[in-house]
Structures are given as C-alpha cells and as structure tokens.
Amino acid sequence: MNPLLAKISPTATRMIRMDHSHALTLFHKLEPGQSPSAREATVRQLCAALEIHAQLEEEIFYPALRETGAELPQLERSQPEHDEMRTQIERVRSLHAEPDAQALALRDLMRAVMHHVAEEESSLLPAAEERLGERLSELGQRMTERRLELAKPLAGEMAADAVRSSPGKTALVVAGAVAAGALLLGSLKRSKDKDPA
C-alpha cells in the first residue's frame, strides 16, 4: 500500500457513508431547471458513482464482514439490491433521449438507493464497526486503491462531467479539485512504479 494513500484513506465504513452522501447529493442536483447538458453530466456521475460503490462493497467490504461469521439479513440482501440497482441504472441510461421517462426511472433508482442506504447505515455499518474494528482502516485503504483503479478509465469523463454539472464559480473549484486529484494520482502512480511491493 502506498504510504500517501494509507494516510488519506478513510475507514471502510466512513467511505461507504461518504459515498451514500455523494449519491444523495447527486440525486438532489437533478432539478427541473437544470440544463440538459448539466443533467446528462449529473446522471453519468451518479451512475458511475453507484456502480463503483457497489463493486467496492462486493469485492472488499462484504467478504470481510462475512469472514467474521456475521449472519446478517441485510448482508444477504445487499447483492440482490445491487443487482436491481444495476438494472435500474441501465434503464436510466437507455432513456437518455426521453427526459420524462428518464426522470421516472431516476425516481425509482433513488427510492431503491435510499432504501439500501437506510438499511446499511442503520444496521449493517454499525455491525461492521463492532465486528471489524481496527480492520476498517486497512479495508478503507484497499477500497481507496481499488476505487482509483476502477475510476481510472473513466477519469477524463468524470472530470468533465463534474465541471459540466456544477454552476458558475463552483465549476472553477471543481476544475481545481480535479486538477489536484490528477496530480495526486500521478504522484501515487510514480511512487507505485518505484516501489512495486
């Protein structure tokens, strides 16, 4: 693990809560008066964020929680809920040329995401904090590293969408944050290339 990445990574449960907040914020950005290009950018951001989040949970977080012997109904429902969310995301994407139909699909996606978030935050995450304890930091580092891998092929589009979906001065701040992120990723890559272990 890269030492810089280890320092900036939140715990796994903190990262999951941050992802939940980010997704809900993106849903709230989808307002009726939003320009079509800003709306499309927000929808792309939202779909990518949800897909990356689900993959991180499925590859790293849920298996670690299962290793503790946890038999939690919420944990067993998580994969089917993610599968349903992916189906809804594909529906949202397929309706990009039909704004009214897409708005209804987004409403259904938002309901599913809110239900999943409520269940995870009220019972699954507290159970993970109790069962995984100190491992949450290491899991957060692994999730951060995997997030960077998953986001890398989408980085250009994600950066452009972040700027497109942000109004005026906020777009400048977002552009600066994206540039800082690119510099950080470059630094992480260079240090990983120097120390492949």
Automatic annotation (TrEMBL):
Lineage top rank: taxon: Bacteria
Q: Where's the Hemerythrin-like domain?
A: 12-128
InterPro entries associated with the record: Hemerythrin-like
This protein's name: Hemerythrin-like domain-containing protein
Taxonomic lineage of this organism?
Bacteria, Pseudomonadati, Pseudomonadota, Betaproteobacteria, Burkholderiales
